[in-house]
Amino acid sequence: MTWLRALAAAGLSVLLPGAGHALIRDWLRTLVFAGLYLTAAVLFLPSPEQIAAAGSITDSMELVTQEIDTMGQFILSFIVLFAAIDATFRSLGFPPGSNSKAADGPTCPHCGKELDQDLSFCHWCTTRLEPQDPEEPTDAEQDERPIRANN
Fold it and tell me: Which residue windows does the record flag with biased composition (Acidic residues) (predicted)?
C-alpha cells in the first residue's frame, strides 16, 4: 500500500506540483511547490489574454510552445520533476523521521504520526489499532507488593 501511495503522490505532483504533498498531508511543502510552479508559470508563459485570443486549443498550445524559451521550459520541468521525486520519497518515509514530528502522545506503529486517542485507527494512514490492555504487573513488581494478612 505504501508503494501505491508513493506512485499516486508522484503522479499528482506531475499534474500539479504540490498535489502529491497534499495527498500525504505535508501542507507546507504543498504550498511551497504549488507557489513555485504557479509563480514560474506566470513569469515564463504567455499572458492568459494571449492564450484566450487563440482560436482553438491547438493554436493556444502552439502559442505557448513558441513563446516559452528554453530556460522557462527547464525551470518548469525542474519544479515538476523535483516535486514528484520529493513527494515520492516523503510518502515512503525518506529521510527517516520525515513523516513524524516529535509527538507528545502515542504514535502510529505504521506511519509514526501522532494518534487521536479516541479513534481505533490511525487517521493519517488508516491502520487499524489494537486496543491496549492494561499491562499486567511483572514478577518483580508482584514481589514488591506488600502481603496482606487476612484478619
Answer: 132-142
Q: Which three cell numbers stand for residue 126?
A: 488508516
Looking at residue 122, what is its pLDDT?
86
SS3 assignment, position 107: strand
Q: How far apart are CA 124 and CA 7, in angstroms?
A: 17
Written as one string, the DSSP assignment of 9-25 is HHHHHHHSTTHHHHHTT
Grouping H, G, I as helix, E, B as strand and the rest as coil, residue 128 is strand
- What are the CA-CA distances from residue 73 to residues 45, 47, 97, 118 (Å)? 9, 16, 34, 49
* Model confidence, pTM: 0.61
- CA distances (Å), origin 1, targets 6, 22, 48, 61: 9, 17, 40, 37
Does 107 lie in the same domain as 87? no
Number of H helices, E strands in the chain: 7, 0
Residue 137 placed within a domain = no
- Tens of pLDDT, residues 29-73: 999 999 999 999 999 999 888 888 888 899 988 988 888 899 999
Total domains present in the chain: 2
Q: What is the identity of the amino acid at 88?
A: T
Q: Which amino acid is at 91?
A: S
